Model the fold of this input.
Amino acid sequence: MPRRLPPLALSRRAELFAHLHAMEQAGVPVDRALASLNLGPRHEPALQRLRQMVGAGRDLASSGQLSGVFTPLESSLLRAAQEAGALAHIHQQLAQRYEEQARQAGELRSRLLMPAGVLLLALLVNPLPALVAGSLGVGGYLLAVLLPLLWLLAVLFVVRLAWQRLQRRRAERPGPLDDLLLALPVLGSLLRRADIRNFCDSLGLLLEAGMPALDALPRACNAVSNPRLRRDFASLAPRVAAGQSLVRAFDGLSFAGKSMLIGVLNTGEATGRPGEALLRFARMQAQQLASQQQMLATWLPRLFYLGVAGWMAYGLLTGGGFFPTLPAELAGR
Done:
C-alpha cells in the first residue's frame, strides 16, 4: 500500500487544474499532459502513480483518487465531467476556485501577522509582573512563556490535520460530526453552500450532456462531501422516478437558496434547458460563497486581535502590572 503523502497546497491545486485545463483546450491527451506536469519533489511519487494508472488505461478521476493526487470531491466532479464530456470546464472551474482560495488564504495569513505579534507580546509581558516581584524565577518565566505557545502550536497542528482528514473522508452514513459541522456558525453555512454549488454544477453538466435526470441525479450526489446533505439530495431521484418534475422534487427539500433555485429551474424547464439553469444557479452560489469567504477573511483577524488584546490587558491588570499588591506584613497594618 503506497505511503499517504501530504495533500497539495491550494496554490499547487490551482496550478494542477490550470495545467490540465490548458492541455485539454489544446487537445493534448491526458497522459502527455501529465508527463509535462511538475508539482515539486514532495508530490512526485503520487504524480508518478497517477501517470502509471492513466497509462494503464484507467480514467483520470479514478486514477487521481487512488494515487492520492485528487480529493474524493475532485474525483467525483471529474467523474461527472467525464460522463458529461466537459472535463475542460471542470478543470477551469477548479483552477479558478483554488486560485481564489489560495489568494484569500494568503490575505488571511498576512492579516493575522499583527494579532500573532500581539499574542507573542502578551505571552512575554503577562508573566513579567511576577518576575519583577520575585515570585517567579527566570526558568519559571521562560516556562510561562513557552508552554502556552507550545500548546497553541499543538492545537493549530491538530486542527489543520483534522481538517485535511475531514476533506478526504468519504462516509456513507451521516453521523454527529456531520451535523455538528453544518450547525457551526459561519463555517456551516460555507460548507452547505459549497456542497449545494457542487451538486447543482455536476447535475447541470450531466443534463446539458443529454444524460437523463434519473441517471444524472445519483452521479451528482457523489459531488456532495457532507453525508447528511448527500442523503437529502439522494431523495430527489425516487421523487423524479415517481413522476415528479425536477422543480417539484427540489421543492420537497429544505436548504438555503431554494426559492432562488426553484425560480431559475422553473424558467429552465419551461425552455427545455434545466441543465443550463442549474449551471447558472451554481455560478450564483459560487459568487455568494466567495463573498462570504471574503467577509470571513476580513473579520476573523479583527476578532482575533481584539481577543488577544483583551487577554493581554486582563493579564496586566490582574497580575500586578498596574496595581502592585502590598506585601502581606504591610497590608495588615
